[in-house]
Structure formats: C-alpha cells, structure tokens
Amino acid sequence: MPVLLPGASRLLLLPRALLSMASGSPPSQPSQASGSGYVPGSVSAAFVTCPNEKVAKEIARAVVEKHLAACVNLIPKITSIYEWKGKIEEDSEVLMMIKTQSSLVPALTDFVRSVHPYEVAESNHDEPCSC
To answer: How far apart are the first and last CA of the chain?
Structure first.
C-alpha cells in the first residue's frame, strides 16, 4: 500500500483498520455501524499533494468523473518540507483529500500515478520516509 511519499508527490492512503478505529468500531467487526449503512473497513482516504491548484482541480475532477472517489477536498497553500535527492526541500503545494471506497484504492492509485506531474509517484514501506 502506498504511504506518505518522500520527495515529489506524497500519497497517503489510510488503511481500513485505521479508518475503522477512527469511526469507533473495532476493525475486526464485520457488522454495520448503528444502522448508518457504514461497514467498517469499507472506506479509505488518500492524501495527495499537487504543485498548484490547476493540477489539483484537474486530477480531482477526473477522479470524481471516473467514479474513483465520492469527493475530493482541496486544501490550498500548504507547506511541504521533505528530503529529496539528499537535500531538505520546502514547497508550497495544494493537498487533495480523496474519499473513496477501499475496493477502489488500487484503481485510484493507478490513475493518480498515471496523470500526476511529479517525478516520484510512490514509495515502498521498506524505503526510509522523511515525512
């Protein structure tokens, strides 16, 4: 599963268990939460940074149009500090908060990687993360 990325694009997908715990239901509980229709572990959130609002809006609109997410919130003017190619970098970026079904995470990840302008699209858990 992708994690918070070092360097260029940083993508964070919250695991189903973490979202289940945030909802107040234990992750192993398969039943629906108090009649809401929510099934613990069925939703995920992805956080993706973009270089500017234009790119973020284009990706966000495409993700929703392709039904890869129910909603994307854009948070402008964040400051990202990270290590890239041995140097500490600082950039102004736009954060996309993408809310989706857990079953769509692989397709969402593939799509974002295919259209995102940054050089680095992911990191493995085994790689050090400076974020």
So the answer is: 16
Nearest CA to 92 among 104, 103, 107, 77?
77
Confidence at 12, pLDDT banded by 50, 70, 90? low
Q: Which amino acid is at 112?
A: V
Write phi, then psi, for 68 (nearest 5 degrees).
-90, -10
Q: For residue 45, how many other CB atoms are within 10 A of its CB?
A: 18
- The CA-atom distances, in angstroms, between 18 and each of 15, 59, 109, 122 are 5, 25, 18, 20
pLDDT at residue 40, as a whole number: 85
Task: Check: pTM over 0.85? Answer yes or no.
Answer: no
**What Å distances lie between residue 119 and 9, 72, 82, 114, 122, CA to CA?**
7, 22, 15, 11, 9
Kindly list the distances between the CA atom of residue 67 and the CA atoms of 6, 64, 101, 105, in Å, as whole numbers in the listed order: 28, 5, 10, 12
- Distances in Å between the alpha carbon of 33 and those of 21, 22, 48, 91? 12, 12, 28, 40
Separation between Cα atoms, residue 84 and residue 127, nearest integer Å? 13
